[in-house]
Amino acid sequence: MYKGLKIAALLAASTLALAACGSSSSGGTTTSAAPAESSSSAAPTSDVKVGLAYDIGGRGDQSFNDSAAAGLDKAAAEFGVEIKELDATAGETDAQKEERLTTLAEAGYNPIIAVGFAYAVAVGKVAPEFPEIQFAIVDDSSLSEANKNVTSLVFAENEGSFLVGAIAAQASKTGNIGFVGGVNVPLIVKFEKGFEAGAKAVNPSIKIQTKYLTEPPDFSGFGDPAKGKVAAEGMFDGGADVVYHAAGGSGGGVFEAAKAAGGLAIGVDSDQYLTADASVKDVILTSMLKRVDVAVYEMIKSAVGGTPLTGVQTFDLKADGVGFSESNAAVAEYVAKANELKDQIIAGTITVPSS
């Protein structure tokens, strides 16, 4: 999940059943079109061609990229746009990202959506070379002011993390919880600080263990379940009974550690209770929902409508751009308090820190 800042997006959640939507692990491409609605009705068609460049992990990461893919699939089904998806590879350079974006631009894809802040350098270089094409980047707001053809799709991750922090503090029996971050970058710090503030809003004396799996420029912390497992095991051994991860694909290891320790875990980005392996899903109390699917869908919808979104578009709690899942019935007893705090954030009586 790189994972990882304003437009209202009141769309129902797309089910992230993505196992059947395979992606090449070697950086290959996948081209698809909207499925036919039925034999008795014509499928929607559009001359818009959408290019999407994934972050490390691509489809199947059960997190950040899968959420983006869900928004892409929803738009393809509703509008009949042609889509092309390109995968990232671990350890790749900015030049490789530039090549990926250039390939899409030269093939006439417009808009082109880059999933993750790691594309910032590449988008900043490629977008000026194709001024007629609208680019969008998830989780970066540094480019849109200088580049009118770059749209920033960002989220209030700290607000959603505040709510799951409040849930974690309510659920904890030991007064000791944990946070596992994939890579120590400002985006993931937003998750951490929101989580910490939410937990302390419920229990001011709660202990919070924090561990980042890697430091930049090593971004493997977003795709290393083994490291996630070791980090979470240390937290459970240290007395934690609920651990929240903002670590992309590494979160699978956190779930395994929670299962082995008889503890609980909190997922991120998508509703991971619905997508995780059946052997661990019962320990996933809730997930912080970061609606990348909504952002991607809205970007494509605006392009189909002839007026692409521009500038910085922030998907916050007020816009239902972030939130928490309730698929696991075990979270039900903690929802009322979380919603009470949500209302206070929206009303402005609670300000959630981000750094």
Automatic annotation (TrEMBL):
The keyword Signal applies. The keyword Cell membrane applies. Keywords: Cell membrane, Lipoprotein, Membrane, Signal. Pfam families: Bmp (PF02608). Residues 55-354 form the ABC transporter substrate-binding protein PnrA-like domain. Belongs to the BMP lipoprotein family. This is BMP family protein. It comes from Longivirga aurantiaca.
